[in-house]
Every structure is written in structure tokens, then in C-alpha cells.
Backbone:
């Protein structure tokens, strides 16, 4: 396994749409293992392939509380097939936008479909933090970031700081 470098805003790769995986190869399985290791090391509760600069539709997640032990999800070509009417607001952060958090309102529960590591089509239901996390990760596959769901004022405040920090590193 290997730790992979996580890319940060304003890297333009984070704004691109990722390509579906056509075939589950050993390279895809290694990518999933490396992404899981990278997510746990960060630490984070989810990671999408574009965050490691790979533009395919692959995500990993583990939203389990410490007491329950790990509950690692590896999803290939994940899709949301149903979203609830009711919403909930949760504080989100993103490994690609370090140092910033914001309250994001999203559908509270959902059904998702994805390919597992054996190539079987799976369906699952999620609510709470896992539901927020799946939506956050699938957003990454479509070039969308959590700050896009904030008010324009809050988003602008974060973006100004992101650009200023990026400039000061050059
Ligand atoms: O570690 C993370 N925490 C988090 C908290 C609330 C909602 C979503 C997330 S995902 C984030 C890791 C990350 O950036 N995944 O893309
Ligand atoms: Ni993120």
C-alpha cells in the first residue's frame, strides 16, 4: 500500500468531472487500497479519486465512530438514486480545502448504487453523517466542492483566503 499526496484548491483538477471506471482491474483495486490508507492517515472520513489527482469515479469512506470500529466503504461508479425531501445541516470540512469548515444543508437520507470491488452492483441506504459524506464525495466526482453549497458571502470569504494563501506559497 502507499500514501498518496492529496491535492488542494485552487488545483483545477478539483473542478473537472471524473470518468466512470470501465473495468475493475488490479490497478483500480490498488488505487482503492491506497486511497483508504491515505484517508485514514489524513485523517478523514472520505476521499474521492480527484483529490489524489486521479480523474475516475472511485471513492472510499469510513464514517463509523471509533467505538464501532472501522466500516470501510469502497465504491466504484457510485450514483445517488434517491434523495429524501427532508434536509439536515451538518458542519463539513474537506481535505482539499484545509483550514476551512462550513455548515452545509443537504438531503438527510438517500439511496445509492455502486459497484463493489468484486464488480457486483450494490444498493445501500444512508442517513446522518454517512449520507452527508456520500453526497460530498460524489460531488467531488463532478467537480463540486462543499463551499459551492454555502452562501455566496461565506464562499467568497473562503475563496479569497484560499487564493491569498496559494499566492503566498509561490
Ligand atoms: O474528513 C472529512 N470530513 C467530512 C465531514 C463532514 C462531511 C463530509 C466530510 S468528507 C471529509 C474528507 C473529504 O474531504 N472528503 O472528500
Ligand atoms: Ni472533500
Residues:
Amino acid at each position: 500500500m502507499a500514501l498518496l499526496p492529496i491535492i488542494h484548491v485552487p488545483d483545477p483538477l478539483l473542478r473537472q468531472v471524473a470518468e466512470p471506471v470501465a473495468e475493475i482491474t488490479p490497478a483500480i483495486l490498488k488505487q482503492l487500497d491506497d486511497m483508504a490508507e491515505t484517508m485514514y492517515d489524513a485523517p478523514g472520513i472520505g476521499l474521492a479519486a480527484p483529490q489524489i489527482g486521479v480523474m475516475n469515479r472511485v471513492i472510499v469512506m469510513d464514517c463509523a465512530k471509533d467505538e464501532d470500529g472501522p466500516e470501510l466503504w469502497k465504491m466504484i461508479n457510485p450514483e445517488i438514486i434517491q434523495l429524501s425531501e427532508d434536509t439536515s445541516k451538518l458542519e463539513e470540512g474537506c481535505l482539499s480545502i484545509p483550514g476551512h469548515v462550513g455548515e452545509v444543508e443537504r438531503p438527510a437520507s438517500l439511496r445509492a448504487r455502486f459497484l463493489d470491488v468484486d464488480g457486483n452492483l450494490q444498493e445501500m441506504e444512508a442517513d446522518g453523517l454517512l449520507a452527508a459524506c456520500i453526497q460530498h464525495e460524489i460531488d467531488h466526482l463532478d467537480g463540486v466542492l462543499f463551499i459551492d453549497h454555502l452562501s455566496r458571502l461565506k464562499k467568497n470569504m473562503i475563496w479569497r483566503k484560499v487564493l491569498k494563501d496559494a499566492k503566498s506559497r509561490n
